[in-house]
């Protein structure tokens, strides 16, 4: 089964490579408008010809819609470059991303605490709960879900939810520095009142685009 992670990396790498070839041959100009027009047409062609695995179909359709409604402001080239840089920086020589372990998650918790985040991971979150932090940035992780998501060797084998309240971009950036990609479920409403929900996946193998860090490794 083709993973979304590797297939979307394939998509953006192919798209950018095709754009460069078109520019070098003089068929497309090097400016945001021309680049968006080219990549919009390329995405539409890829959809029609079903050139990539079905797992990326929704993302291709989203890009097609963006380019049609936003024009040059869709900034497809910028999106492609950010996705390529983000994902390829975490890949090893065999195309595998970070193995998410208990040790890695613990390191992430320590980094968050050093940045003045309150980490709460000792309770079960099985219904709508309130978590008061007096304005401090907060991460809540369900203890029961965490336990079931880890195997005996301490490796993540199931998706794990992170409930957060605070500077989401800072959270995304700090996670990425540890090699962890975050996949947004909701910005605000979740099982934990006033907290958004993000999910981490084994080997960063999410099923849609991850949240992108400010600066890649």
TrEMBL record:
The lineage of its organism: Bacteria, Pseudomonadati, Pseudomonadota, Gammaproteobacteria, Vibrionales. This is DUF2913 domain-containing protein. InterPro entries: DUF2913. It comes from Photobacterium angustum. Pfam families: DUF2913 (PF11140).
């Amino acid at each position: 089964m083709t993973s979304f992670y590797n297939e979307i990396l394939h998509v953006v790498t192919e798209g950018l490579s095709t754009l460069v070839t078109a520019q070098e041959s003089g068929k497309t100009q090097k400016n945001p408008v021309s680049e968006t027009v080219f990549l919009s047409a390329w995405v539409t062609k890829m959809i029609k010809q079903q050139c990539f695995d079905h797992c990326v179909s929704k993302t291709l359709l989203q890009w097609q819609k963006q380019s049609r409604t936003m024009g040059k402001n869709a900034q497809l080239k910028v999106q492609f470059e950010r996705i390529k840089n983000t994902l390829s920086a975490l890949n090893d020589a065999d195309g595998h991303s970070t193995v998410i372990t208990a040790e890695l998650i613990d390191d992430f918790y320590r980094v968050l605490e050093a940045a003045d985040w309150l980490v709460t991971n000792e309770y079960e979150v099985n219904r709508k709960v309130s978590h008061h932090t007096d304005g401090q940035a907060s991460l809540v992780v369900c203890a029961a879900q965490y336990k079931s998501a880890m195997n005996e060797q301490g490796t993540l084998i199931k998706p794990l939810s992170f409930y957060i309240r605070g500077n989401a971009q800072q959270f995304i950036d700090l996670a990425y520095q540890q090699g962890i990609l975050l996949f947004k479920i909701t910005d605000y409403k979740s099982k934990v009142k006033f907290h958004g929900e993000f999910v981490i996946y084994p080997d960063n193998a999410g099923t849609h685009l991850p949240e992108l860090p400010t600066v890649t490794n």
